[in-house]
Amino acid sequence: CRVRNYKFDVVMRNTSRLCSSKQIVTVNGKFPGPTLYAREDDNVLVRVVNHVKYNVSIHWHGVRQLRTGWSDGPAFITQCPIQPGQSYLYNFTLTGQRGTLLWHAHILWLRATVHGAIVILPKRGVPYPFPKPHKEIPIVLAEWWKSDTEAVINEALKSGLAPNVSDAHTINGHPGPASNCSLQGGFTLPVDAGKTYLLRIINAALNEELFFKIAGHKLTVVEVDALYVKPFSIETIVIAPGQTTNVLVTADKNSGKYLVTASPFMDAPIAVDNATATATLHYTGTLSNSPTTITIPPPKNATQIANKFTDSLRSINSNTFPAKVPLTIDHKLLFTVGLGVNPCPSCKAGNGSRVVASINNVTFVMPTTALLQAHYFNIKGVFTTDFPPNPPTIFNFTGSPPSNMATMTGTKVYKLSYNDTVELVMQDTGIIAPENHPVHLHGFNFFVVGRGLGNYNAKNDSKSFNLVDPVERNTVGVPAGGWVAIRFRADNPGVWFMHCHLEVHTTWGLKMAFLVDNGKGPNQSLLPPPTDLPKC
Ligand code: C2O
């Protein structure tokens, strides 16, 4: 294994999209940011230098950070932010991991423009479990705001109202040829007839689950969240913020240009965004002025198209890639996830109440000392360990909304012993927004053993859990008006954030953390903090 050295300079850069330009926060001046390449088991060192006026931290989304929680990145969870003029060396090893992940800023909404791909190749000489592609291309989906992102952010924080909807979605940084401003051409994917390509698709958008498709070409799905799946072929994939999907595309036409689209799935009515990002698949030798074969993106409420994709996901579960689903469970947890309204006399908007989000009616309050530091140095008063394992009132989705919509605030964590097994059912309360909550767990991958609509019924629904070849991932959609069940083993000591990856919901409080104690054996303890760990 090698050591991979990277330097991420966080700098402002004047960037123009949609026929106008503005200053944005970037890594190394790029939007999207640079791709981080490594191989399985490599040691990655990234020096992040903060040259902007904002506090910064970077998260390596999906990297397990075994015993190295100090490098995980979420501000005030595992580290204090890197202050202007300061730097921090993230140091982690990609133990047993390969595939596509993403890195992004993990403080406020900076990840709107501060994000990029992580490509982890298998160990040298180890093949993929599918035919070797001719070329591999990262495809980063995101958003663009014409107005100042900081202003958008501050407004949402102040009012508790939805942020201004983005003005465009982007594919590798560009809204594309079908956008209102056609002066900027968009991303082009050159292909040779007859060859097969691996697209490493990443959704780095703040608040939009997206459909992705290519006119006239099928997509063969081979991996999600850096974990191989049984290959299947499909026209349209759906991908939530924080998720990644690898697909094979065979250039099975002779020539031509084909439209690639990324379009929203299931917007909340309060944030209606219809913008479709486009790119072009371009066969070598096709004249640039020849017409493009188009495709119509799915309607944004095309739940069946989304379900067709989600229901097809299975882990490989072979001798080489066994699915190690925990079969005995130490902690059975039921979390309601959702939005509510809380009184807020000081709020300007919303008639003295504001939108909040919660898990089991706890609206998580960010601490001012990082939780991991408080845990490691035994600093009292930063968090409590009384995160409720069950909802405070029995939730009934089909009946009247739960009478207790009000939330309590707190910095509560749920405590696990090393190697404990967890079954977590997340029930959407679906009162306000008809959209999935893509919940991301730091520090672990988990198996998605079940999923359904309506109320979760422990007795009946658990009978149909897939404990053989469920898909394994790090971010899962809690279906709007339904539930999802996941299982994982707490084999990574530290403090691990779990939150909705729709940034606006995280801001409102849809987040919590698991605290995993050290084990007693060798290599079962959190490593000591690095000496340059930022101070609060
Ligand atoms: Cu990709 Cu906690 O985030």
From TrEMBL:
Residues 12-123, 136-285, 386-519 form the Plastocyanin-like domain. Its cofactor is Cu cation. GO terms for cellular component: apoplast. It is found in: Secreted, Extracellular space, Apoplast. Keywords: Apoplast, Copper, Glycoprotein, Lignin degradation, Metal-binding, Oxidoreductase, Repeat, Secreted, Signal. One of its GO terms (molecular function) is copper ion binding. One of its GO terms (biological process) is lignin catabolic process. Binds 4 Cu cations per monomer. It holds the Pfam family Cu-oxidase. Its EC number is 1.10.3.2. It catalyses: 4 hydroquinone + O2 = 4 benzosemiquinone + 2 H2O. Belongs to the multicopper oxidase family. NCBIfam families: laccase. Lignin degradation and detoxification of lignin-derived products. This is Laccase. It comes from Cannabis sativa (Hemp).
